[in-house]
Design brief:
7 helices, transmembrane, Rossmann fold, about 35% helix, eight-stranded mixed sheet
Length: about 250
């Protein structure tokens, strides 16, 4: 398994701690993926998915966004929290996150990963879960506006997407969105609004939109509060297929 390394992202707002995974079997330059946390922080689950991506051959960087809280909450910043122990705390922390600063930090993370020696220039994608799914979408829009677009976007049930749909025309990179049909947090009416916006009514062939029957919010999280095994396996297979097509390890 790929080792997890501490890494500092240098930004104009001061250093931001992050975690870095480099693929063990890489023999040349590889694409990079910036992973954005769920509301529980860089939990064991998110770290495991980062390791999964590194095993596929990607360099992976995950910024510790809750380190920006004032004051930062050490346990959440360093290790995340388990949902059954701290749902109220996590929701409170997520509400305190400075969204505009988080987007800027996401852009800094993309730049930092792109400058690492093992990473191919202009081959950095963004991927996020829940809170991070919406943030990845916003960062992709901001990166395109700044003239350094993301190579691809993967968004798992982005919880803030309903408030970000005006940014959809700016997200021109190949994208994959996954949702469950039984999401109590993002009901199907909103999911269909998201689909309409991000696909431009089906006109954007570079956007893939996948629904998973019977799955609720955060269905990929293995915690029993959320986990839907069938949907999790299917969505991860779709993610691997999408990344292999749009961000190939052996591509140019």
């Amino acid at each position: 398994m790929s080792a997890m390394l501490p890494h500092q992202i240098m930004t104009s707002r001061g250093p931001l701690p992050s975690l870095l995974w480099l693929p063990q079997r890489a023999t040349g330059l590889v694409p990079g993926i910036v992973v954005f946390q769920e509301i529980y922080g860089l939990s064991d689950y998110v770290r495991a998915r980062c390791a999964d991506l590194a095993e596929l051959g990607y360099a992976v960087l995950a910024p510790q966004l809750f380190a920006r809280l004032d004051p930062p909450v050490a346990a959440v910043q360093e290790h995340g929290v388990e949902p059954q122990d701290a749902l109220a705390e996590a929701l409170e922390l997520g509400g305190k996150l400075n969204w505009d600063l988080a987007v800027k930090d996401g852009l800094s993370a993309m730049s930092a990963l792109g400058r690492l020696g093992p990473v191919k220039k202009k081959k950095v994608a963004v991927l996020g879960f829940c809170l991070g799914g919406g943030l990845a979408f916003n960062v992709a829009a901001a990166a395109a506006t700044a003239g350094r677009p993301a190579a691809a976007l993967v968004s798992y049930y982005g919880s803030t997407l309903p408030q970000l749909l005006d940014l959809a025309p700016q997200v021109e990179c190949p994208s994959l969105h996954v949702f469950g049909t039984d999401d109590d947090y993002i009901p199907m009416e909103q999911v269909e609004r998201i689909r309409e916006a991000v696909t431009d009514g089906g006109a954007r062939e570079q956007v893939r939109f996948e629904l998973h029957a019977g799955a609720g919010h955060a269905f990929d999280n293995p915690n029993p509060l959320f986990f839907h095994e069938e949907a999790s396996k299917a969505a991860w297979a779709q993610t691997q297929e999408f990344l292999a097509a749009e961000l190939p390890i052996d591509g140019p």
